[in-house]
Amino acid sequence: MCGICGRLNFDSQAIVEPEILRQMLNTIRHRGPDGEGTYLSGQIGLGHRRLSIIDLSTGQQPLANEDGTVWIVFNGEIYNYQDLRPELMAHGHRFRTRSDTEVIVHLYEEYGEACVERLRGMFAFAIWDDRRKVLFLARDRVGIKPLYYLRSDRFLIFASEIKSILADPEVRAEVVPQMIDRFLTYYYTPGEDTIFRNIHKLAPASYMTVRDGQISLRQYWDLHFVPSNLSLRDAQERLMEVLEESVRLHMIADVPVGFLLSGGVDSTAMLGLAVGKTDRPLSSYTIGFSELGPNDERPYAKLAALAYGSVHHEMTISAKDFVDFFPKYVWHMEEPVCEPPAVALYYVSRLAKDFVKVLISGEGGDEAFAGYPNYRNNLWFERLKEAFKPFPGFLSMLTAMACVLLRSKRIAKYRQLVDVPLESYYYSRTSGPHSFFNQHVGELYSKDFAHQVGKADSLNVVRKYFRNGAPDDMVNRMLYVDTKTWLPDDLLVKADKMTMANSIELRVPLLDHVLLQFAASLPGSYKVRGFTTKYIAKRALSRRVSPEIIARKKTGFPVPYESWLKKDLSEWIKGILLDRQTISRGYFQQACIDWMIRENQRTGAYSKEIFSLATLELWHRVFLGDASAPSTLLPAPKAD
Predict the structure, then answer these.
(1) Distances 126 to 194, 553, 621 between C-alpha atoms, Å
(2) In what order do the strands lie in the sheet with 134-139?
(3) 466-475, long-range: CB < 8 A, 24+ apart
(4) How far is the C-alpha of 132 from the C-alpha of 508, rounded, in Å?
(5) What angle is formed at CA 204 by the lines to CA 202 and CA 206, rounded to 5 degrees?
(6) The sheet that has 199-201: what strands, in order across it?
(7) CB within 10 Å: which end of the chain, N or C, has fewer?
């Protein structure tokens, strides 16, 4: 696990200056505090920061083949490298290290760009082929590891983090107005564009080749929902086999491995499946909040730790801890993302840093096996719409009556969607037409800013995936959309940036592509059955996970930021959003922001919107202002 960067000048006579690479590497030192390396040869420069996980003594990068004609910088882990190594040796390749990095080099020599199809793991890497004068960039299938790039008329720059690209003196940070609307539509920025002008993400399951200034992009894998026709019982048995294999592969390391425990099914299962797969003691880590009350995850995490004999560690954070980290949260995340749980992930990985270099989490289980309530709710809602189709207006009348009688905000949310097709309201699992930002664009945006953006442009980024998913299976269709958008551009960004901020490698066995492809072969009825979400996973894991955890109502990772923004931090947040500097940007109407803040103080109904606006403002101050001192960019919160 590391940080990588590089620059390719299209003019073969234009030399990459060592100082540029040095500055780029300095900004991502947190990704690899164990070492630094560079390769400079005329028009190409490759940089690497190392976090030593495998082959501690000889795994330094950049790394070359036998004759020095192929060079690589690599971030990630290849879990099948021990299987690939003998095959490559049989083809005559000679190894100087025990690292997975060298396997990629020889695999590229043997198969060229198709080498990525043989890799099982998480990765982002760059290979310079000096014989062909070709730069080859690749990213793993799901997007676990990030890779950004900027192309100008004269050069291409790439890096694990955007701030490394911005360290090049020829790059200027500029905002793309349309991406502000995209962020406020979804609460993150799906797609290959970023909020920074001219800086893009290499899409998951894609690679890029650069030759003579010409760029070629290709997608090498996709998640295909092809039914396997396995019975439920056979599918459960096969699922356990794939889970066992994935966890075993993810335990490979030359350093201690720990586990993040949330008190839920997925993280508990990861710990349980790891028992017996390592000679080292297991350790686990969780976090809590004194304000949480009945939703506190710590008792369930302790229950799992006790069941599997892990050495357990936990901590508590407060509203002050939340505020103190907020500017650094924006600096590390780099793009606006409404992810309050990311702050908790930062603190718990900081706790784990004193004990381990690698953490394993249950991230991805909900996207593979339909664990979120919205999958069940949308499925039932669509079934109701179909059932009442012969009776126009009747379902609308029923939902209206239910809203009055039950006073349910959830029913009210669905009422307005009665006559809207699924793909028109399932923008993402985080947002939709019922969100304030999508309902009140006219009141929120200033007239000048409204002319610069278009809601249709933001929506089309996600809508296109409805055409490529599983058309005959509604649950799998939603899972495909989330796997292509919400997962790589929100959850995995948070997972990578917050753990790497503490020089911790995070591994996610539930996002192994073999496991994902198996999950995609199962019908939606195996995942959502009746009112039960993640049905097959819970059945398969029932012998490994305690009934108390299996039967728990899903709570996510409930950071109590809503109560903090409503009470403890209300004046502090007001000082940010109504500040003259914020208003002068010209995006929003001050009256709307003021109303939203007052309503949130009264009801707590707009916490997500307020957190998003505060994150957006902090992004401007950090990246378009004084990025060298993020901690000075906020007013101090009032003392309790």
Answers:
(1) 20, 43, 32
(2) 63-64, 70-78, 121-129, 134-139, 206-211, 214-219
(3) 466/422, 466/423, 466/426, 468/222, 469/225, 470/225, 470/524, 473/225, 473/523, 473/524, 474/378, 474/379, 474/382, 474/422, 474/524, 475/370, 475/375, 475/379, 475/524, 475/525, 475/527, 475/528
(4) 35
(5) 70
(6) 35-41, 44-50, 2-9, 155-159, 148-151, 199-201
(7) C
Q: What is the pLDDT of residues 514-571, one digit of tens each?
A: 999 999 999 999 999 999 999 999 999 998 898 888 988 776 667 888 888 888 888 8
Three-state SS across 107-124?
Answer: HHHHHHHHHHHHCCEEEE
Question: What is the distance between the alpha carbons of residues 569 and 567, in angstroms, rounded to a whole number?
Answer: 6
Tokens representing residue 52 in the block: 């030593």
Query: Which residues form the catalytic set?
Result: 2
Q: Where are the alpha helices (DSSP H) in 53-141?
A: 81-90, 100-111
Each residue of 378-417: pLDDT tens digit? 999 889 888 988 887 888 888 778 777 766 666 766 776 7
Q: Which residue has the tokens 């694990």?
A: 160
**CA neighbours closer than 13 Å in the CB half-sphere of residue 57:** 3
Q: For residue 511, give every residue at least 6 positions away whose Cβ sits within 8 Å of its Cβ, in sequence order, or none.
A: 122, 142, 144, 363, 364, 368, 487
Other beta carbons less than 10 A from residue 422's beta carbon = 17
User: Token pair for residue 242?
Assistant: 């794939």
Return the HEC string of 314-325: EEECCHHHHHHH
Contact present, 311 and 282 (Cβ < 8 Å): yes
- Cα of first residue to Cα of last residue in the chain, in angstroms, is 41
pLDDT < 70: residue spans in the chain:
1, 56-57, 292-295, 406-410, 412-413, 416, 429, 432-434, 555-557, 626-640
Strands 505-507, 358-360: pairing kind:
parallel
Per the confidence metrics, is the pTM higher than 0.70? yes
List the alpha helices (DSSP H) in 149-231.
162-166, 177-186
Q: Which residues contact 2 (CB under 8 A, 6 or more apart)?
A: 31, 32, 48, 49, 50, 51, 61, 73, 74, 75, 160
Token duo for residue 13:
């006579």
**Beta carbons of 396 and 297 less than 8 angstroms apart:** no
Single-letter amino acid, residue 398: L
Locate 409 and state its tokens: 């905000």
Do 32 and 61 touch, CB atoms closer than 8 A?
no
Give the closest residue to 331 by CA, choosing from 316, 346, 317: 346
* Alpha carbon of residue 245 to chain centroid: 23
- Beta strands at 35-41 and 44-50: parallel, antiparallel or unpaired: antiparallel
* Cβ neighbourhood burial of 290 (10 Å; 0-12, 13-18, 19+): exposed
SS3 504: coil
Domains and CATH numbers, the chain: 2-219 (3.60.20.10), 561-632 (no CATH)
What pLDDT score was predicted for residue 419? 76
SS3 194: coil
Rounded distance between C-alpha atoms, residue 259 and residue 355, angstroms: 11
Per-residue HEC secondary structure of 215-266 comes to: EEEEECCCCCCCCCCCCHHHHHHHHHHHHHHHHHHHCCCCCCEEEECCCCHH
CB-based burial label for 415 (10 Å; 0-12, 13-18, 19+):
middle
Calpha distance 497→30 (Å, rounded)? 10
16, amino acid identity: V
